[in-house]
Each structure stands twice: as C-alpha cells, then as structure tokens.
C-alpha cells in the first residue's frame, strides 16, 4: 500500500512539473468566469447585442464588421469580412509579467479560402516594443500544391521577413467549434500552439527555428494583441468570410480548454 501511495504521489508531482492542465473547471477559464487574475478576458455575455459597445477593447476594421450576437448559451462575437478585408478586436496597453504569456479562444470558421493560390490569413496578431516583428501565432494559408488549407505560425515587418510556416499536420476544420491556445515566450523567442488542448510540435517557432530569413527571430515585448480575421490577397474564394469567437482570455499561465 505504501508503495502504491508513493507511486501515485510521484505521478502527481511529475504531472505538475510538466505543466499539465487540469481538465476540471478549476483549471480553465470557462464561459462567464472572467476573473481578476486574468490579464484580459472577454466572453461577450455582459455586452449588449449589436456593434461593439465597450471600453475594454477597441476595433480595427477594413471591409469588415464585428457584431455581438446572442447564442444558445450566452453571447459570442460574429466577424464578417469581404474579400481581403479585416476585422479585429484590439487589446491595447497590454502588459504581461515576466517573459511569457498565454492566450485562449474558442473559434468557429464558416469557410476558409481556396483561392487565390497561397491565400494567407491571420486570426491573432501581437506587436510591441523591442522588436519590429508583427507576430502571428494563429493563422494559416491555402497551399495549392497539396492542395489544402493549413494552420501555421508566421510573422512580418522584422528581419525575418514575411513568412507563414503552414503544416500539413494541422489542417483547418470548417464550421466546427474548436479551442485554440498559444503562448509567446521571450526567454527563447518561442511560440507554441495547442488545438483542442493538444500541442502540435510542428506549430512552434523560436530564435533559430522559424520559417523566415536566416537571422534570429526576436519577439517584441507585447503591448497590443489583435484577435479576429484578416486575409491579405484579393479576389478570394469564397468572396466573404464569417467566423465566430468566444471565451477570449490572456493569462500569465496556461488556461486549457
């Protein structure tokens, strides 16, 4: 019996040391639980339906709109863009303690682009001071050579250039709710991504391991985070894009799904 108890205790300690995320509600921020310990949180439930009406975040749009809509349980944010438009919820004056922060959102995309070739889209973008890199931890690209549309980390505006490292191990899923998590860590300039609670080791980047020019990739000290949708090339198929986002949170620790 003592050996069994010791083994269980060792397994528990190992799980905590590995940074495992509890599956219980206590281990994640769920709908309606925007607590004070989060760096930013928006579940849209307390906002009036219609156009955004809040002082907690701003809006960045071109050929796109944001609408708070009532759902079966609570509310969510509907994002609609035309062609290569954009529509973002914008978190300004963001500050994360230490070198690392985590993000989480729930997402459903009606349809992803299948034209033009190499159509590139972004759903999360982070910028700040200390580095000109425009960091895109959640985004993707249509690859006509496969063919298919895949998730991929990317960046632009800095020494590494404009790049998106899409991965065939991460195909997109249309018209289905999914949970996306990401982390940015300036200690080794690492980006990590989880989809529905599962890490994809290929969806990572770091100082020397990234998809851009052969120079060090350096993360900024992030002070602005944008969450929404932008597609960069014109003449798209489909001609319009619709997605729904809910349960957005930024935290100093991983939240889980």
Gross morphology is globular
> Can you tell me the number of structural domains?
1
Strand content: over 45%
Distance between the termini: 35 Å
Overall helicity = under 10%
Task: Figure out the total of helices.
Answer: 1
Main β-sheet: number of strands, strand sense, barrel status?
A: 13 strands, antiparallel
User: Kindly state the mean pLDDT as a whole number?
Assistant: 89
- Name of the level-1 CATH class: Mainly Beta
| CATH topology (fold) name | Jelly Rolls
Kindly name the structural category: mainly beta
Regions with little confidence, pLDDT below 50 for 5+ residues: 1-31
Beta-strand segment tally: 13
C-alpha Rg (nearest Å) = 19 Å
Order of helices and strands: HEEEEEEEEEEEEE
The CATH architecture name reads Sandwich
What does this 3D model show about the protein?
It is a single chain. By secondary structure, this protein is mostly beta strands. It has one helix at residues 2-17; strands spanning 40-42, 58-70, 75-91, 100-109, 120-129, 134-143, 148-156, 163-171, 178-185, 190-195, 198-205, 221-231, 240-251. Strands 1, 2, 3, 4, 5, 6, 7, 8, 9, 10, 11, 12 and 13 form a 13-stranded antiparallel β-sheet that branches. Strand 10 and strand 11 form a beta hairpin.
């Amino acid at each position: 019996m003592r050996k069994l108890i010791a083994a269980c205790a060792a397994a528990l300690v190992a799980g905590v040391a590995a940074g495992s995320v509890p599956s219980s509600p206590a281990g994640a921020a769920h709908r309606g639980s925007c607590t004070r310990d989060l760096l930013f949180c928006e579940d849209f439930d307390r906002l009036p339906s219609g156009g955004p009406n809040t002082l907690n975040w701003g809006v960045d749009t071109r050929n796109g709109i944001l609408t708070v809509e009532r759902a079966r349980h609570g509310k969510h944010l509907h994002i609609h863009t035309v062609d290569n438009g954009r529509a973002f919820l914008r978190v300004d004056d963001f500050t994360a303690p230490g070198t690392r922060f985590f993000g989480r959102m729930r997402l459903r995309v009606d349809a992803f682009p299948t034209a033009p070739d190499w159509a590139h889209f972004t759903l999360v973008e982070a910028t700040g001071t200390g580095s000109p890199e425009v960091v895109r931890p959640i985004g993707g690209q249509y690859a006509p050579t496969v063919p298919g549309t895949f998730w991929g980390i990317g960046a632009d505006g800095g020494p590494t250039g404009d790049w998106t490292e899409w991965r065939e191990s991460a195909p997109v899923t249309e018209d289905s709710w999914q949970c996306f998590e990401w982390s940015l860590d300036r200690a080794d300039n690492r980006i990590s991504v989880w989809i529905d609670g599962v890490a994809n080791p290929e969806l990572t980047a770091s100082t020397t391991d990234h998809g851009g020019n052969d120079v060090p990739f350096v993360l900024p000290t992030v002070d602005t985070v944008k969450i929404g949708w932008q597609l960069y090339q014109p003449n798209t198929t489909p001609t319009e894009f619709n997605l729904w986002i809910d349960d957005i949170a930024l935290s100093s620790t991983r939240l889980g799904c």
